[in-house]
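note to self: dont lose this again. the chain is below, predicted strucutre after it. 233 aa total, dont forget to put it in the shared folder this time
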Amino acid sequence: MSMDPGFGIARLSLLDRGVVFVIAHIRGGGELGRHWYEDGKKLAKKNTFTDFVDATDWLAKSGWVDPSRIAALGGSAGGLLMGVVANLAPEKYAAVVAQVPFVDALTTILDPELPLSALEWEEWGNPITDPEVYAYMKSYSPYENVHSVAYPKVAAVTSFNDTRVLYVEPAKWVQELRNKTTGTEPVVMKIEMDGGHGGASGRYVQWRERAWDYAFIADSLGATDLLPGAGIK
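---
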């Protein structure tokens, strides 16, 4: 979807520590027309993942950031994106935070009894009836493609009562990352016992949840100290 610039008060905690906050407009938005969107779904889905890596490369060369201190954050289908880019280009990120991540996508979408499977076929294709879609999804699904490489710091954040992306998906993914990584960076899982796919209800509770995500990122980037003069006055 197209995402308009907007003010997010929780982001101030990162900005006050010198973090540059960037939204990568990968395939799915309408910025470059309908054809650009269509060329990022089903059997062209991998374009969404390489778009994100390309955006990362652009950012690294932009002069706005330290190339060695880039973190990635995404949720739900964007959590699948996090899993894929961690497999594709782990060396480009100091940290990856995957929120309620759809990281065992193939297993889930093969179950037509789950509430969102039929709806998701429009985006990914139907691997139950189409062998080509099955093979294509298997070639990028994060869980199936974890391999022996030095992964960055990874945090998987999920909810026990999430009915859209079951907590077992990030649980399986985290364990596979721990089994396969050749590096020493931590791979952690945080599970909320209340709330669902969108987290717990209530503005202040949501801020506390976001604070954990941002603290993980800030710590990973070495950006824990406030800049001189920073903070709300």
